Amino acid sequence: MIGADTTFLVQLEVKEAPEHFAAHKILWNQIINPGVQLALAPQTLAEFVHIVSDPKRFQKPVPVSEAVKKARFWWNAAEVQQMTPSDASVMQFLDWMEKHQLGRKRILDTKLAATFWTAGVTEIITSNPSDFTLLGFKAIVP
């Protein structure tokens, strides 16, 4: 199983996003064709909706209603394993924040990493590999 960072979903869904085609190549070559499950957490979907609908980031932002439909599609996709935060993931998140003295800009990625880590997911597709390799993940970068 491979975890999905928000950057991966954004790259898949927004044509003007950097690495759009590379993300699709990873989806097909490392997830769909070999039959690997993609781990997805609810916080990723919230961040996804926020980012793809932002007119400051994209010339053609996705309307929020459409972004929600896309998020629902991903959450329910057959290739996706839904990962919800647990008590253990909250404790892991807090431990990592303290141990690595992480600041406020690392909160969301660290919480996502903790959700995956406590569920046994140690690989993640991301455009921000250093946010996850520090915590012990193998990063796959589009």
Q: What is the name of the CATH superfamily?
A: 5'-nuclease
Give the strand tally: 5
* CATH topology description: Rossmann fold
Kindly provide the radius of gyration, computed on alpha-carbon positions and rounded to a whole number of angstroms: 15 Å
The share of residues in helices is 40-55%
In words, what does this structure look like?
With 142 residues, the chain is α/β, with parallel strands linked by helices. The chain has one domain: 5'-nuclease (Rossmann fold, 3-Layer(aba) Sandwich), CATH 3.40.50.1010. The chain has seven helices and five strands, in the order βααβααβααβαβ. It has helices at residues 6-13, 20-32, 42-52, 64-76, 87-99, 107-117, 129-133, and strands spanning 2-4, 38-40, 80-82, 123-125, 138-140. A five-stranded parallel beta sheet has the order 3-2-1-4-5.
SSE topology sketch:
Blueprint: E1 2-4, H1 6-13, H2 20-32, E2 38-40, H3 42-52, H4 64-76, E3 80-82, H5 87-99, H6 107-117, E4 123-125, H7 129-133, E5 138-140
Parallel strand pairs: 1-2, 1-4, 2-3, 4-5
